[in-house]
Amino acid sequence: MSCPYPSKQSGLVMVFALLVLLSLTILGVSSVSSSLLQSKMASSMERRSMAFDAAESAIGAVLFESEDKALLSNDALNDPLSDARAGIQYDPGVQDLSCFDGDNWTNRTLTAAGLQKNTQHTQAGNFRDSPQTQSWSRTAFVREQACIGSSNVIGGSNISCHVFIIRGCGRVQDSKYVVANSQTASVFAPASQ
């Protein structure tokens, strides 16, 4: 004689199957969530790397412009270090050489057009268009000092070292942050006294 009611065993199989299905669903959601997070992290690191490259290029552009013989021989134009020397002196203990302070420091930009001789790179534009990336610098005069270790080489006290700080700044469009890097440059120049 057959029993019209389902057995207890078939009920346990259904509960077990539902538990396995729930476990697989949780594992799948967790895996997708982890992949999305890793993708966001990789994208953020890529954007930060592009901004850092833009900041480094801005520093290189200042050095390029400061060594451009065509620019240095043009009396109508100044290189960024000469402009910074003519401006206010930078005191690291009091002032901040901020990427956002475009009023107090010498400013240069580097665009997708690249670096050109006999040119002050002050035009606006993007360093890269896809994604849009900006690259610019701030340059300030720090101090004049005796050139350490070079007195025998340059032979005299009428030469001193003029020390500058160059801050390169880079920013990718829609980023909440600017990546900055700084470099110190020292230049032989006649002493002020």
How does this model look, in words?
- The structure is a single chain.
- The protein is an alpha+beta fold.
- It has helices at 8-66, 69-72, 80-86, 151-154, and strands at 106-109, 128-129, 132-145, 159-172, 179-190.
- Strands 1, 2, 3, 4 and 5 form a five-stranded antiparallel beta sheet that branches.
Query: Whole-number average pLDDT?
Result: 85
Q: Which runs of at least 5 residues are low in confidence (pLDDT < 50)? A: none
The helix/strand order is HHHEEEHEE
- Strand pairing plus helix content: what structural class? alpha+beta
- Give me the Rg, rounded: 30 Å
Based on the structure, what is the oligomeric state of the protein chains? single chain
Helix content: 25-40%
Principal-axis shape equals elongated
> Can you count the helices?
4
Percent of sequence in beta strands: 15-25%
Kindly report how far apart the N and C termini lie. 119 Å
- Main pleated sheet: 5 strands, antiparallel
Number-wise, the strands total: 5
